[in-house]
Amino acid sequence: MESRSRSFYVLATFFALFLLFLYGPTITIAILSFQGPQGGLTFPMNGVSLYWFFDLFEEQAVGDIWGAFRRSFGLGLMVMVTTVVVSVAAGLAFRKKFPGAGILFYLAITSLVIPSILISLGVGLIFQQLGLKIHWATSGFGSQLTWTLPFGLLIMFAVFNRFDKSFEEAARDQGATAWQTIRFVILPIIAPSLLGVALFGFTLSYDEFARTLMTAGSYNTLPLEIFGMTTNVTTPVIYALGTLTTLFSFLIIGVFILTVFFMQKRRSRAGSDAGKGV
Amino acid sequence: MTRSFTAWLQAAPLAIVLVGFLVAPIIMIVIVSFWGATEWSIYPAFQFDNYAYLFSSEVTYRVFFATFKYAFITWAFTLSIGFTVAYFLAFHVRTQAMQIALFLLCTIPFWTSNIIRMISWIPFLGRNGIANQTLISWGIIDEPLEWLLYSDFSVILAFVHLYTLFMVVPIFNTMMRIDKSLIEAAYDNGASAMQTLWHVIVPLTKPGIMIGTIFVVTLVMGDFITVRFMSGSQKANVGRLISNDIGLLQYPSASATAVVLLCTVLIVIAVLLRFVNIRKEL
Predict the structure, then answer these.
(1) What is the per-residue DSSP string for B17-73?
(2) Which residues span the membrane (chain A) (predicted)?
(3) What are phi and psi of A219, to 5 degrees?
(4) Residues sharing a CB contact under 8 Å with residue B170, sequence separation 6 or more, in sequence order
(5) Beta carbons within 8 Å of A275's beta carbon, 6+ residues apart
(6) Domain locations in chain B?
(7) With contact defined as beta carbons under 8 Å apart, do B41 and B251 qualify?
(8) For testing the chain A interface, which of B4, B16, B18, B228 should be mutated: the one with the most A CBs within 10 Å?
(9) A158 confidence band (pLDDT: 50, 70, 90)
(10) How far is Cα B268 from Cα B37, in angstroms, rounded to an integer?
(11) Portion 215-274 of B in contact with A at CB < 8 A
(12) φ and ψ at A164, to 5 degrees?
């Protein structure tokens, strides 16, 4: 192996600085959330304690964050399942040519790049004018889908662009119906990517702010609750909350990544059963 | 016939969601942009007052200018940082396992809360924050810098922090598909590292750059929360103009501004899309 050039070290340093830039602030507030009871929003540390974490659990100290967390979690699961199902179905559809495919594709792209406040405003107006109740599980749910579905769809494009069609043809040659081909051949092969779609669906919903702002109604989701706190909470309790939600996100991401990892591993261990008969 | 029927059935859920929560809201906004408003209610009408007011106000032009300014500066920074990071990952990291691990490290923040990531800049940039404390202890400055937080600087810093990975991912994706033999060929023909980068890698990476550009530019142009939070409500962009009107229940006026913003964004994207075929690049 040839030795590393000087540009490697320059670029590696740049990359390390970039990571520091990405993670530094998050690590800082994680440290600051352990401030002592008299501690402020910045260094120096005024003692070390779990005071602000306990403060979070006091009901009246901050708003209804546990209720908000439950709602965000539930909504995240709803959005996740819907995103996976709808994206896979649409991904399958786009493999065939159908009239309107182009329009639908551009709609999905528009959905991704449209300023979020338009979704918030428009959905809010429609519900208002139709006399429907604005609620996180109806208007909020739909608005978040406009953000997660395009990501799901783009991932499905990436997946199917790399999909070896001979698997399907083999299944069909063996007499599998269209549904059997999807259920027993396509879905198992793309399963790890589906976990990726699920991860996008859940986390994008869990952290979504702009499209939920006017569409969540009287019960806030967690990001809305946190944003409300920024205007009237001036203690490290907000760092404690930030640290906990970030840890929760990391946990979710970790679970997904590990699952995919073990799936791949099991698959490569199981290998092919070609030639072993039925 | 049955084939395209199945396809229709499979695409229907997506179509229904997009019609209900994307097309209908846009149509609604266009309709309401012609309505009238009193201080507490809005009423159906067909008048151009909202647009007339919007285009006659000097604030509009200033705010649109600020929006383009944020978009352009953020774009320049995210592109140069994103390209460098992707280039390092794609061409200087040797094993694929390491590439995947480092790539994941870059993308993980994308799955965490933007609001928290904005909040986490406060201890850095505040008047008594880490940056000021450090600079003072080094003797570089005597007084704390006031422009670190609640300024254009902090707004752009937050944008770059939040959105650089939207550049890294598509650029890395295109770079990984560059045939390595093309680069060897360039070296064999006597090209320097810089020449190879500029005449071989950059042109081949253009689609990724364009996709990243579309993401960053539209996210920044449509933003209202980063500007509000990071500028302490002292700076404005178009998104904030809209959200202020919403706060005052002036929905028709908010809608008119939203229509103009949407048209602006779509024109920008239409121009950018001329350079790239998205579906081919996935």
Answers:
(1) HHIIIIIHHHHHHHHHTT-EE-SS-EE-----HHHHHHHH-HHHHHHHHHHHHHHHH
(2) 73-94, 103-127, 147-163, 184-204, 237-262
(3) -100, 115
(4) B207, B208, B209, B211, B212, B215, B281
(5) none
(6) 58-281
(7) no
(8) B18
(9) confident
(10) 31
(11) 215, 218, 221-225, 229, 239, 242-243, 246, 251, 254-255, 258, 261-262, 265-266, 269
(12) -80, 110
Candidates A80, A86, A205, A226: best to mutate against B (most CBs of B within 10 A) is A86
Whether residue A203 and residue B112 make contact (CB cut-off 8 A), yes or no, is yes
**Which CATH fold topology does A81-223 show?**
MetI-like fold (1.10.3720)
ipTM value, please give it: 0.87
Lowest mean pLDDT among A41-45, B107-111, B252-256: A41-45
Helices (H) and strands (E) in chain B, counts: 15, 2
Q: Does domain B58-281 have CATH number 3.30.70.260?
A: no
Predicted model pTM: 0.89
The residue extents of the domains of chain A are 26-62+233-266, 81-223
- Determine whether the interchain pair A43/B92 forms a contact, defined as Cβ–Cβ distance below 8 Å: no
User: Which residue in the set A114, A238, A249 is minimally distant from B111, CB to CB?
Assistant: A249
A37 vs B: CB within 8 A: no
Identify the DSSP state of B127: T
Q: How many CA atoms lie within 13 A of A70 on its CB side?
A: 4
DSSP A143-211: HHHHHHHHHHHHHHHHHHHT--HHHHHHHHHTT--HHHHIIIIIHHHHHHHHHHHHHHHHHHHHH--TT
